[in-house]
Specification:
alpha/beta; Rossmann fold; 218 residues; binds BIS(adenosine)-5'-pentaphosphate; 48% helix; binds magnesium ion; three-stranded antiparallel beta sheet
Length: 218
């Protein structure tokens, strides 16, 4: 049966890092709203041009635009086997829209792992993050370095830093999270779907905790 997981956590908590590993381990499709926006910006599509300044500022893209983009992605055949959602939903309206979409697919949200970290580790994580320009693999210069500095281990692509990882913009992203996304934690807890994961451990240990939690629901 298809399972749908929703990873929640502050910017830099490790959602993307874990979503890649988890989707591979469990044969699910990784759906990252942030990666979808960045891909559109890179290709300068209409959507990309529309959202570029918003991402750069650290604010959230309006719900209607975000929901339409994620809906398109979830309706593709590779999401019928289940998906790891990373960065979506981020508002109550998006959570409601997600329930509808998954209902259409004959599924539902099975588990919401909340990757928990203290605010003070985030800036260090984000300021040391390097991302592959071609496959979006994420590295950290100290915690998860590539074999050769500036070059992706997987495809040799160039590693760059995200324009929204400047300390000032990170502050805006954290404020947006507190205002819009944090309420979803209680929403999913009330539904019995939330599981807290200690995101301050080494990457492998976080993965082990996540896999154990997912095994209980599938
Ligand atoms: P998005 O791309 O989703 O960014 P985010 O939520 O701010 O999260 P990040 O990608 O920064 O962090 P992460 O948790 O994935 O951490 P990572 O694994 O990379 O969104 C970007 C923007 O797009 C938003 O600001 C908004 O404008 C827009 N947007 C996206 N979705 C939207 C939505 N639904 N609605 C409206 N707007 C939306 O890890 C970070 C670093 O730490 C890496 O270097 C990594 O190597 C390292 N690391 C990871 N785990 C560990 C560990 N355990 N120990 C040490 N280091 C670690
Ligand atoms: Mg991410």
């Amino acid at each position: 049966m298809a399972i749908y997981l929703v990873l929640i956590g502050l910017p830099g908590a490790g959602k993307g890092t874990q979503a890649v590993i988890l989707s591979k381990e469990r044969g699910l499709t990784h759906v990252s709203s942030g990666d979808l926006f960045r891909d559109n910006i890179k290709r300068q599509t209409e959507l990309g041009k529309q959202v570029e300044a918003i991402l750069k500022s650290g604010a959230l893209v309006p719900d209607d635009v975000t929901i339409a983009m994620v809906r398109d992605r979830l309706m593709q055949p590779d999401c019928q086997k289940g998906a790891v959602l990373d960065g979506f939903p981020r508002t109550p309206a998006q959570a409601e829209a997600l329930n509808k979409m998954l209902g259409e697919l004959g599924g539902r949200v099975n588990l919401v792992p909340y990757v928990k970290v203290r605010d003070d580790v985030l800036v260090e994580r984000l300021s040391g993050r390097w991302t592959c320009q071609t496959c979006q693999t994420v590295y950290h210069e100290k915690f998860n370095p590539p074999k050769v500095a500036g070059v992706c281990d997987k495809d040799g692509g160039e590693l760059t830093q995200r324009p929204d990882d400047k300390a000032e913009t990170v502050k805006t992203r954290i404020a947006e999270y507190m205002k819009n996304t944090a309420p979803l934690i209680e929403h999913y807890r009330t539904q019995g779907l939330l599981v807290e994961i200690n995101g301050e451990q080494e990457i492998e240990k976080v993965t082990a905790e996540l896999l154990a939690a997912v095994a209980k629901v599938s």
